[in-house]
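debug: dumping io for the single-chain case to check the tokenizer round-trip. Nothing else runs in this session.
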Amino acid sequence: MSASPAKPAILVIDDEAQIRRLLRRNLEAAGYTVREADSGGAGLAETASRPPEAVILDLGLPDMSGVEVVRQLREWSKVPVLVVTVRSAETDKVAALDAGADDYLTKPFGAPELAARLRAILRRMQKEERPPQEKIGDIEVDLGARLVRRAGQEVRLTGKEYGLLRLLVLHRGKVLTHRQILRELWGPKAEGNTHYLRVHMTHLRQKLEADPSRPRHLRTESGIGYRLLEE
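debug: decoded output
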């Protein structure tokens, strides 16, 4: 009789025991094993000694900020990080994403949304080696040939439009902040020029979305950045 496959291990870094218990209950019900840490330092040490499949991280920790935990993790690890926090300010979310977090969830939250966000970041980790051709709805992107089609028809994009689309495709489902995109496409000195992005995103939607005023795929995260979705 073959052995059952090991359950994915999730590390919860949160200083509140009640929150850790809630997350443990929800995650174990969803088929994960759970390990816990009550501080940033303990979480970093646990990740180094026994790397989990993903980390769920609170921003308010007793010894260091959650943002600093993400920064230190990203110096040596690509482990997916889902930030779960009571902080709803855009500045907190942007700081976490800029530091390298994969997604965020604001407390209070439902167990189904937690499980869905976790599945999404785990899928992205499994697809690091992405195929050269991607399909999002009726949009096809051939990364190898630098070709874009919509409903089978080739769409002509400018260099910056293609660069923006390629970046979103490579991080499909993940929120990319304005700063991340500007730094990648225009360099670090352009990080404050969000009007560049608005113009190119408008043009991209006009070329690729059936209804540019109500985009299905090229979605705005208000005040934070953009995300590419399949639905």
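debug: round-trip ok. The mean pLDDT is 88.
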